[in-house]
Amino acid sequence: MNKNFYAVIMAGGIGSRFWPMSRTETPKQFIDILGTGESLIRQTFLRLNKICPAENIFVVTSEQYQLLTLEHLPELKPSNVLCEPVRRNTAPCIAYANYKILTKNPDAQVIVAPSDHIILKEDVFINVATEALNESGKHDCLITLGITPSRPDTGYGYIQIDEDSNEKLNDKILKVKTFTEKPNFEMATFFLKSGDFVWNSGIFIWSAKSIQRAFQKYLPEIDELFAKGKSMYDTSLEKEFIEKTYYICKSISIDYGVMEKADNVFVYQTDFGWSDLGTWVSLFDNSNRDENNNACIGSEILTYDTENSVIVSHNKNKLVVIQGLNDVIVVDEGDVLLICNKNNEQKIKDIVDDVKQKYNEKYI
Amino acid sequence: MNKNFYAVIMAGGIGSRFWPMSRTETPKQFIDILGTGESLIRQTFLRLNKICPAENIFVVTSEQYQLLTLEHLPELKPSNVLCEPVRRNTAPCIAYANYKILTKNPDAQVIVAPSDHIILKEDVFINVATEALNESGKHDCLITLGITPSRPDTGYGYIQIDEDSNEKLNDKILKVKTFTEKPNFEMATFFLKSGDFVWNSGIFIWSAKSIQRAFQKYLPEIDELFAKGKSMYDTSLEKEFIEKTYYICKSISIDYGVMEKADNVFVYQTDFGWSDLGTWVSLFDNSNRDENNNACIGSEILTYDTENSVIVSHNKNKLVVIQGLNDVIVVDEGDVLLICNKNNEQKIKDIVDDVKQKYNEKYI
Q1: For A26, which DSSP code?
Q2: 3 state SS of A70
Q3: Nearest CA to CA, how far is B320 from chain A (Å)?
Q4: How confident is the model over B161-210, as pLDDT tens digits?
Q5: Inter-chain contact B339–A325, Cβ cutoff 8 Å?
Q6: A279, A303, A311, A321: best to mutate for the B interface, most B CBs within 10 A
Q7: Are strands A336-341 and A328-333 parallel, antiparallel or unpaired?
Q8: Nearest to A33 by CA among A357, A298, A355
Q9: What distance in Å separates the CA atoms of residue B147 and residue B120, rounded to the nearest whole number?
């Protein structure tokens, strides 16, 4: 394994679109959401550990999840869990981890990945990631992994490939023309037809030096904040420094702050059975279905005259019976039962907001 | 209060159409199903106690529910709870209670009522029942209370009034022409239009002597069985006698065994806001509904874009959220969650049978 290969797992999210299974106390990444026997963060760690040694893998998460992270990843040194005192989106998270890595190894080549996605074709992923990591050592570039879209999904961001550009790292790693936000259905259909667009997986590969240069150029105030800590990383002063830094640091995503602006961004178009498992419908899409096209996840679930539904219940002592309903999401999880029309699942976010208003943090 | 007035509360049912709220361990009559603060059996007892003294009220139930009955009705002497060792439908239940009452008071006038119905207009009920009880002391007759139907309900039995008969007890208590089973929708619509039909409430009023004579005539084998116990009622031998008698006694309803055959049956047509609360839809019909016509029974229920549904959850620590569904029954009760299309609630019986097959008595 290449000792210059590093990984940063971003694990600070709270997965509110997966409520009520994902809760503030145990968000989505810490749940074995597909029932495979391993939580999503553990799957992510084991996958990346096939590319990088465990001591080169860092997890950035909220202070609240420090112990939970170590429980799920006992192979990890506690010092490799970087704790954010407040949520500040992905750019500060990456800046922090990158300075830590630069301190240890200025020649580091880094893969940055969310903790809560699924990847079904692990072999393909490992080959792709390794190739991109190798390229990142040869060029000053920022590489993102783009997934060949299979449907006009409106839940993903898209990346347009610049097919005409002469700049490319190799035949598969091409220049990016534009990043786009989540499109509406018509736009997504157009993207799919055009063939130039891929899904933005949110997985990035670069050298530590390249991304630091990009921060200097596009987010100089964030770079300056974290550069001030150089003498404090890996010392007893780090914690206090990070506390102060995060509170004054602005909240911004790496996509918006760097990737959409930089002129050395490339995309590796690939397909490794990826899903961000962002929603109940994506869970449905990624689950085994019974003869009536129901995804029944958990135990003791009986369905009658019911189709195209996703039913989740992990309480082994409880029987769930559904009769005469189609296209529903049923999640019976702890102190919340959610029953939602599967065609309206974007409403779950509003419901979570409403529940917060009514009950504060209870049930969230 | 007339000391000759007695009441028999039939409380041996298991309320399987109200599963999963009604369970073998705590059937419907022991549940405060409308959330009024009192179980149905307690409501029934308190209502009848306005007509009869408490010592004249008998409850016939399964041995299994003896203690539960006394918990719900602490005013009752334990010896007034008559325990059935096995379920044998209503005729043996009434024969047993009637012999007990005859032993105490040969001049008893008796009202027999199910334990799990609701009556909204209690004053009307008390007047009607008292008048019928008084009439039962003057004539050798069997009186049943018939409810003026308000809709073509297919869940009830109907009684046809013989409008042409000269036999009548008074202007309100008329001769019965026929009893009918639960009709189909067309038949029920015809019944409603004709004006001759009333709902069979299953509440009966007669003198102890009259119903005993009717047993002698129409169910002589049952009468003989219970007559043999005359010397044993209210002695230490009663329990063993009843055990033996019930096991050899046939199972038959009072309607089929006596009422449909006897020629001295009268019906008091009335309307006291009665429902047998036989099904979830009847619960829905009898509950307060919110502005979207949902009956939300219990605590912490939130509905969004949901109409005409009945949602029952009594767990105070659980939040139930329903989005984008119409005409559903949702019951989250202990170790069972049932979600059923409200238009298919007759399927619940099949579901209960299927659950029994799969899990034996668990969940039932």
Answers
A1: S
A2: helix
A3: 5
A4: 998 888 888 889 999 999 998 899 999 999 999 999 999 999 999 999 99
A5: yes
A6: A321
A7: antiparallel
A8: A298
A9: 13
Phi then psi for A328, rounded to 5 degrees?
A: -120, 155
Q: How many CB atoms lie within 10 A of CB B312?
A: 25
Interface test with B, best of A339, A342, A362 (most B CBs within 10 A): A339
What distance separates the 2 farthest-apart alpha carbons in chain B? Answer: 65
Partners of A142 in beta bridges? A206, A265
3-state secondary structure of B244: helix
Q: Do the Cβ atoms of B267 and B176 come closer than 8 Å?
A: yes
**Are B302 and A351 an interchain contact pair (Cβ–Cβ within 8 Å)?**
yes
Q: How far apart are the first and last CA of chain B?
A: 41
- The closest CB to that of A339, out of B322, B344, B359, belongs to B322
Instruction: Name the least confident of A22-26, A237-241, B66-70.
Output: A22-26
| Bridge partners, residue A267, by sequence | A144, A174
Beta-carbon separation of B323 and A347 below 8 A: yes
pLDDT at A56 over 90: yes
Residue reference for tokens 């006291």: B272
Cβ distance of B321 and A337 shorter than 8 Å: yes
Distance CA A263, CA B167 (A): 102
* Chain A residues touching residue B359 (CB < 8 angstroms): 319
Q: Which residues of chain B does A324 touch, with a Cβ-Cβ cutoff of 8 Å?
A: 340-341, 343-344, 347
Helices of type H across A105-219: 122-138, 185-194, 208-218
B335 to A354: CB separation less than 8 angstroms, yes or no: no
Q: How far apart are CA A287 and CA A329, in angstroms?
A: 13
Q: Taken in order B213, B219, B221, B226, is the CA torsion positive or negative? A: negative
**Interchain pair B304, A351: CB under 8 A:** yes
How would you classify the pairing of strands B173-180 and B265-270?
A: antiparallel
Count contacts between A and B (CB, < 8 Å): 118
Residue of A nearest to B344 (CA): A324
B214 inside 8 A of chain A by CB: no
Pairing assessment for the beta strands A310-313 and A295-298 based on DSSP bridges: parallel
B335–A318 C-beta distance less than 8 A: yes
Confidence of residue B303 (pLDDT cuts 50, 70, 90): very high
Give the Cα separation of A55 and A72 in Å (integer). 16
Closest CA to A331 of A17, A81, A3, A13: A17
- The answer to whether residue A341 neighbours chain B at the CB level (below 8 Å) is yes
Name the residue with tokens 């209670």: B97
Q: Are A361 and B309 in contact (CB under 8 A)?
A: no
3-state DSSP call for residue B82? strand
Minimum CA–CA partner of B346 in chain A: A323
Q: Which of A235, A316, A275, A324 is nearest to A118 (CA)?
A: A275
Q: What is the pTM of this model?
A: 0.80
Q: Is A358 on the interface with B (CB under 8 A)?
A: yes
Instruction: Check pLDDT > 80 for residue B240.
Output: yes
